[in-house]
Amino acid sequence: MKRGGLTREGWIRLAVVVAFVLAFELLCRLGVLPRTVVLPPSEMATSLWHLLETGEFTADIVSTLQDVAIASALSIALGFALGIAIHALPRLRATLEPLLASYYAIPTFMFYPVFIVVFGVSDRAIIAIAVLLSIVAMIASTLTGLDRIPRVLRKTAAIYRMGLARRALLIDLPAAAPHLFTGIKLAFAYAFIGVIASEFILSGQGIGYQIAYAYNNFENRKMYGLMLLVIIVATVANAVLDTIDRRLQSRLRR
Amino acid sequence: MTAASDGAASGVEIAPRDVHAQLRGVTRVFPLASGAGLHALGPIDLDLYHGEFFAVVGPSGCGKSTLLDVLAGLSPPTDGTATFEDKPIDGVPDGVGVVFQEDASFPWLTVRDNVAFGLRRAGVDEAEIKKRVDYAIGFMGLRDFERAYPAQLSGGMRQRVCIARTLVLQPRLILLDEPFGALDQQTRLLMGDELLRLWRETGATVLLITHALDEAAMLSDRVGVMSARPGRFIDIVETHWPRDRDSRIVSDPGFGAVTARLWEKLRVESLKLMGTRP
Amino acid sequence: MRRLVDFILLLVGIVAAWQILHWIAGDIALTSPLDTVEHLGKLLGTERFWLNVAETARAFVAAALISLIGGVALGVVLGLSRTSAIVSEPILIALYSLPKVTLYPLVLLCFGLGISAKIAFGAMHGLIPVTIFTMKAILQIKPVYWRTAETMRLTPGQMAWHVALPAVIPEVLAGARLGFSLTLLGVLIGEMFASQRGLGFMITSAMGLGDIATIMAVALFLSVFAVSANALLLLLDRTAAR
Hints:
The complex is a heterotrimer of chains A (about 250), B (about 280) and C (about 240). Chain A has helices at about 10-30, 40-55, 60-90, 90-100, 110-120, 125-145, 150-160, 165-200, 205-215, 220-250. Chain A is mainly α. Chain A has 2 domains: about 1-40; about 45-250, MetI-like (MetI-like fold, Orthogonal Bundle). Chain B has 2 domains: about 20-95 and about 175-278, P-loop containing nucleotide triphosphate hydrolases (Rossmann fold, 3-Layer(aba) Sandwich), CATH 3.40.50; about 105-170, no CATH class. In chain B, helix 5 links the parallel strand 7 (about 175) and strand 8. In chain B, helix 2 packs parallel to helix 4, helix 3 crosses helix 4 (about 155-165) and helix 6 packs antiparallel against helix 7. The N and C termini of chain B lie far apart (about 50 Å). Chains in contact: A-B, A-C. The interface of A and B includes residues 155, 158 and 250 of A.
């Protein structure tokens, strides 16, 4: 990727996205897509602006972002630790891996009532579900990262007569770092999905809940404004993480 | 210093035939899952003399790399003794440097930080690090790439980084495990010249593992030919090259004779290997 | 043999952990493994349960087929040109990491409250991973394969059938595995939020009644299904990768 300025593909991508938004706008304005179903993007944007200005949902936005931050941090830390532990036990890993692969088919949301009883009605139940959803990505990335440390680098560490702790810090960690970052990126994305989805289906607060509430009360303007907010936040956050990720990965390309 | 003819003036004078590292009755048996052992190497007897350039050739899977691992202290012999500078090898000895076939440069460090890595680990003071790193970087022709990351370099350049990284530690015994195996033929010849230059300049003892007969014949004072597994030395060929040789030695009339003798021995072993493959 | 023993040990471990959690949390939070299996057995004997299973299965199969066929077709089209692949990849990844629940109201407004909304929502989850994996697979076919095919004077049809298809199948299967998992998740979320039928609906109504036993039983049923379906696909994956 070129630094500063867009590549040719970057420009095409931008054009595609802009064209899509404009076409969407046009179809709405022409009445092909009825207003009862969807609002034109421009009105979503003005609605979002209005919502942010009045501060009607500021508490919900803060609560959602806070939950996402806590859930991501927890799954990154716990997932990393668990990944190291599982990597050290190859037999456990061989048995566990097929289960991890089908993990996403299990709708973690159904354990919400369990968490409500354990944690009480609070953010903690939502965070628990988001952690449950995102931790596996971090575990898997940690395993990949540890697998991909070239054997020759470990041999090199032996040549420099490094102890286990020094090797872990100076060789293993930086060698695995690009894969670990991919895990961090995914953990964040899944934590975001987990928090919003829990709020949407189950809870009484947060952006997800407000979207569901607006839907049930036929408040399309509010609903689409908030929807746009989620799309923007998720896209920007993921784009930033993705750019860092690609830069780290390019160091590995050999 | 590029001319081959002024070599006698450069480098360190070495007392000949003075044993630097020694293997006596070394064998290596790897335990297998079935409970039996895989006899990979030996028994091997070898005297490496101070300041010599010794190459090891052998059919694939004959235990060449295992031999190097024993000398590097990376894996202890199953049987027999290995000594370096009259001390038994137990763990990686001080004064031994290793260059591997695989690219062992650290992708997260710049070329300069890669080269300085071992010195920083050893707690050498910054002024000394700067001096030695500058020298090694200049010596290996990496001056223009100091700030680059390995991913931005070619395979040959990355191997130079690894050699420079070993060089700065001023090893007295340098072990190279097919260091040019992944490079193209022209680059190999030129890297061979660099290696000779480094060997002359440092006065270190060099043990080179290779599968390329011409490389062994061109670089070495002596070439050990190993048998198919379990690897033993079946011949040790002396080349009698002058110390200030370089890759142009390949046009020397004696060169053909050396490679012919190496191939004669090795051919039989390689045939055995092909015939006995399960 | 050892793998089987390990697997059984793992199962025993999971059940033990579950039992211990049950002792800690109590019956209101978490029914014990034995009670859950018993309750599931009871559910399996009722007609209502199987009606819900059939409803979810219908939506899932339809959504999975759309994801697979649509994803492969889209992936092939985008993967044939390097430019279109580079242009579309970040867009696809952004769509993948979007919390798609927020878009569910839009789906409901478009498709109404019936089964088609669930199918559409399930397909939204499954389509993208299949597309991404297929696209990358097509892109990564070694150029030397094409040249070999050309020197053998294969027709474009033969190239597609004998070279491209076998080369991409393992990747497509990997994408399908992830895609199907997410499709099921999508269908269930759809049922949980707005539906009067299906396993997702069973869960939400059980939640409303505080009926933990039913929730756990359905969760067990779904987990066993998901894990075994996935194991089957993994097996297929291994055979395809020879």
